[in-house]
Every structure is written in C-alpha cells, then in structure tokens.
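User: Let's play a game. I give you a shape written as tokens, and you guess the letters that built it. Ready? Here's round one.
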C-alpha cells in the first residue's frame, strides 16, 4: 500500500467519528452544523486529492464534483418546500467528496436501505424495543420530521468501512 493511499484512507477513517456525531446530533436535535459539513468536505477533498495524485487521473474528483452539484440542485427544491432540512441538503451534497465518485453506487444502495429503515421506524415506533426511545420517535412522527442525516451518515460510514476493508485485503 502506497503512502498516498494510506493517507487517503486515514482521512476517510477520520470522517467516520464525525459522521457518527452528525448522525447522533441530527437524530437528537434535527440540526446539522455547517462546521461539521465543511470539515467532512475538507476531509473528503483531501482524500480525493491524494487518490488523484496517486492514480494520475482527476476523473474521480470531477465525478464527485458533478455528483455533489447534481445532488444539491436536486434536493434544493425539497428544502424550499420544507420536506428536508438545509443541513441534510448540504450533507448530501458533500457525500460524493467524502466517499469518492467511484463508490457512489454502493453509497446509493446503502442510503436507500437505511432510509427505508428510518422511515419504517418513524412510521411504526411500536416496533422499537425501548419505551423512552419509542416515545421520542412517536414525537418525531407527530411533528412530521425524520432525521435524514442518520441514514446519510450510516450509509457513508458503511461505504468508508468497506473501502478501508477492501484496501487492507488488496
């Protein structure tokens, strides 16, 4: 494993606890801080830049930039209609940089799975084990909010863990 690849994976590994923090704070307060999204974006850009230097191709960086822009433009109307929060839109637009353009398909499938699990949990809180946790989810359902940062963070964490695992065994 080259030094550039190892450093790139380290930057992505550093994003895992930050993503966990973003998911937890979004779950508990329905807010995603701009500084957290900016820090994730910086970690992702640094990681992608190292990978691009190693490969000699800037394709992954360009693909991530295009995907981030498309996601921002696609989700912006949902923010304007108050269906998702601004933090969710910004976090989603930063994700292609954090996970890399070549892993967008894996991230998308994981995001779909975690989003369905979140929607089922919010709409059917009686399926959850703990009483206090269940009451909190029922409160979110009555307010009409769902913490979309949680499935985004979970999908990104799983994608990064998969990248690190595959790199360790290759």
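Assistant: Ready! My guess for every position:
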């Amino acid at each position: 494993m080259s030094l550039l690849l190892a450093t790139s994976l380290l930057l992505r590994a550093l994003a895992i606890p930050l993503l966990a923090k973003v998911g937890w704070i979004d779950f508990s307060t329905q807010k995603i801080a701009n500084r957290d999204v900016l820090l994730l974006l910086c970690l992702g850009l640094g990681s992608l830049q190292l990978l691009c230097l190693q490969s000699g191709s800037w394709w992954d960086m360009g693909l991530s930039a295009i995907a981030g822009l498309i996601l921002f433009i696609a989700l912006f109307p949902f923010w304007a209609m108050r269906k998702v929060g601004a933090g969710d839109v910004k976090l989603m637009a930063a994700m292609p940089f954090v996970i890399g353009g070549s892993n967008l398909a894996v991230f998308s499938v994981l995001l779909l799975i975690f989003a369905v699990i979140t929607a089922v949990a919010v709409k059917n809180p009686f399926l959850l084990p703990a009483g206090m946790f269940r009451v909190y989810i029922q409160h979110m359902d009555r307010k009409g909010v769902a913490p979309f940062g949680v499935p985004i963070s979970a999908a990104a964490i799983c994608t990064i863990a998969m990248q690190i695992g595959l790199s360790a065994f290759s």
